[in-house]
Amino acid sequence: MMGDFVMMWLQIFVLGISVLFRCTDSVDLPRFVGPGSNVTVAVGRDAALTCRVDNLQTFKVAWLRVDTQTILTIAGHVITKNHRISVNHGDGAWTLGLKDVGSSDGGRYMCQVNTEPMMSQTHQLQVVVPPDIDDEASSGEVLVKEGENAALRCVASGTPPPAIAWRREDSRHFKINNQTLVSKWAGEWMNLTSVERAASGAYLCIATNGVPPSVSKRIQINVMFAPSVWAGRVAVRTLMGSAATLQCSAEAYPAPQFHWTLNGEQRLVNGSKFKLSVSSRGYRHTLSLLVSEMSRDDAGAYRCHVENSLGKAQAELFLHSKWNKLKLGMPSRE
Ligand SMILES: *[C@@H]1O[C@H](CO)[C@@H](O)[C@H](O)[C@H]1NC(C)=O
Ligand SMILES: *[C@@H]1O[C@H](CO)[C@@H](O)[C@H](O)[C@H]1NC(C)=O
Ligand SMILES: *[C@@H]1O[C@H](CO)[C@@H](O)[C@H](O)[C@H]1NC(C)=O
Ligand SMILES: *[C@@H]1O[C@H](CO)[C@@H](O)[C@H](O)[C@H]1NC(C)=O
């Protein structure tokens, strides 16, 4: 009975001693200060991960790459052969440096202390990459016949994955998904149904992912259609001896050939009597015919002819002469 009591007290005593030892043990162990870091860095820049350890004593801090299970540094020494890696310590902080970070450097890193059992803390490196547009996979110049559909694509890479926005270079609204007018469109594809000539022009696809710089690609849409043409003023009157300008407005793409005729006869040519010119803005063309020194022979029915690979069109105008009332002193009669 007595022996049992002694044994019991002895056991309690031993337990107490071991608890006491454990307590002093845990006080003496190193500990991490603060949580593991989560660092975001743009590709090509330098990154630093810092591990803070209190009460390190003679233990050593190592940095490891979790994904590849590689030891990078131990204490002040770089173990890996990667020359972009460095380690700095001071004030209980152990900083792993990575120069010229690449996409593949992203992932988890571990700060380890060689206690028994070993202590570790995980740090995260996020490598972000600015957007880049894949020219090959994206649309180039788009040629489409009026009334048909066009599918424009813009493919971009980057981390995080970029968002794609579309707009017209001139900021005008445009029709998408049949007849909805929009100023912007989002998504890799911009599908235009039943395109009209007004859809012609330059579009920009802009890739953004929050990592500067954003990038854009210019994509030209050319809508092809047969010419249409109409006279500026159908009847033009001019004084004998003075000049007159006849004008036609045309719409056509591809850019049309044009010529003028008088009274259904052969083509008029540039010279001292006639000056032919054209000015174009996109698919809109203004044809001008300058008739100098108006004479009786110059009066008549003029036609402007416009032709491209998809068709032809013409418009008629009349040039009349009128007498100079003042000069000839004639009654007002034309
Ligand atoms: C690290 O931060 C990024 C945002 O910067 C977040 O998306 C990610 O979930 C974070 N990772 C951890 C492990 O906290
Ligand atoms: C687009 O609109 C036209 C008429 O405006 C219609 O005939 C056609 O079916 C529509 N297409 C789609 C895909 O909605
Ligand atoms: C746009 O057109 C492409 C190619 O024709 C097609 O693969 C894609 O699904 C279309 N997208 C939408 C939203 O209609
Ligand atoms: C006619 O001459 C003008 C310059 O005087 C020129 O700009 C125009 O292109 C010429 N037109 C043709 C059809 O040769």
Structure in words:
This protein folds into three domains: 2-128, Immunoglobulins (Immunoglobulin-like, Sandwich); 134-225, Immunoglobulin-like, CATH 2.60.40; 232-322, Sandwich (Immunoglobulin-like). Helix content is 9%, strand content 52%. It has helices at residues 2-28, 325-328, and strands spanning 31-32, 38-42, 47-54, 61-65, 70-74, 77-78, 85-90, 93-98, 107-113, 119-133, 142-145, 150-153, 156-159, 163-168, 174-176, 180-182, 185-186, 189-192, 201-208, 215-231, 235-239, 244-253, 257-262, 274-281, 284-291, 300-308, 311-322. Strands 11, 14, 17, 19, 20, 22, 24 and 25 form an eight-stranded mixed β-sheet that branches. Strands 2, 4, 5, 6, 9, 10 and 13 form a seven-stranded mixed β-sheet that branches. Strands 1-3-8-7 form a four-stranded antiparallel β-sheet, with no helix packed on it. The longest helix is centred in the N-terminal third of the chain and has 27 residues, at 2-28. The model is unreliable at 5-10 and 12-24 (pLDDT under 50). It binds 2-acetamido-2-deoxy-beta-D-glucopyranose (NAG) (4 copies). One 2-acetamido-2-deoxy-beta-D-glucopyranose is lined by residues 270, 275-277.
